[in-house]
């Protein structure tokens, strides 16, 4: 039960404690990448076009309208490819390099932590990745990691003002789409045409046929789907097993960092309880003051309100130095 006394906001006391810590967990959420310009798709900003973003993140939605779901995820892939890791991503990557027993659990699917150089052995993606794909056919086991082709197939190219890309209709890999897209982006004066914001419901999007969508290169029949964990699906078993081993290896966890997440969605949020049961103090970085309560903070914990891209490098500076 949370204490009636407010958690600390003192960076100095946190920095001193951080230096003494051995075993550290970090739980990361969408607020971490908001500083890179990516929408969080939660709260008041949770709509994509006229759809609740969560309503598109289900197996049922994909079965009902795979074209719409792929348009949503292709948009997210495109936004993530254009975004750059922010200073918080780099700070956490540096902490992972300096603290041997530091394990990061990310709920983000945007790939920015990996691109910031976060060691793969210390970064575990609870909800998968936008850039992984797998075949939906029951009889096919095809998967692919780190597919950054944008668009993944021609029909999913983000529309622009003026003439549109017209790649070969038989191209299902995205390679020809990329060439055609950038050719059409060149205007008369050599500058690229402005992309239309298809997250706005007033911007028309194409009505796609199922044959326009990404298909499996192995079985040639099944649709590919984004390699993310949708609502109603289990978290990756190998990821959960790795976390369980980390927790079981020692009687003590010194610290859990909770960055950019409301910590209200289980099972991810349950790791705060797991860590505190082993003695961990909690440090929360979030824009929303109400998230301090959802994390059950005590007087010996910390809450830092504000932009993760600004705050995280500051609070980690005692170990990683100035970025």
Task: Describe what this molecule looks like in 3D.
With 323 residues, the chain is α/β, with parallel strands linked by helices. The chain contains twelve helices and eleven strands. It has a six-stranded parallel beta sheet with strand order 5-4-1-9-10-11, with helices on both faces. It has a three-stranded antiparallel beta sheet with strand order 7-6-8. Helix 9 (270-277) links the parallel strand 9 (255-259) and strand 10. The longest helix is centred in the N-terminal third of the chain and has 17 residues, at 66-82. The two termini are 37 Å apart. The mean pLDDT is 88.
Features:
about 325 residues; alpha/beta; 6-stranded parallel sheet; 3-stranded antiparallel sheet; 12 helices; about 15% strand
State mean pLDDT (0 to 100 scale): 88
Counted beta strands:
11
What are the low-pLDDT stretches, counting only 5+ consecutive residues below 50? none
Give the neighbour order of strands across the main sheet.
5-4-1-9-10-11
Tally of DSSP helical segments: 12
Label the structural class.
alpha/beta
> Level of helix content?
25-40%
Q: Into which percentage range does the β-strand content fall?
A: 5-15%
**End-to-end separation:** 37 Å
Q: What is the string of helix and strand elements?
A: HEHEEHHHEHEEEHEHEHEHEHH
- Oligomer state equals single chain
Give me the Rg, rounded: 21 Å
Main sheet makeup: 6 strands, parallel
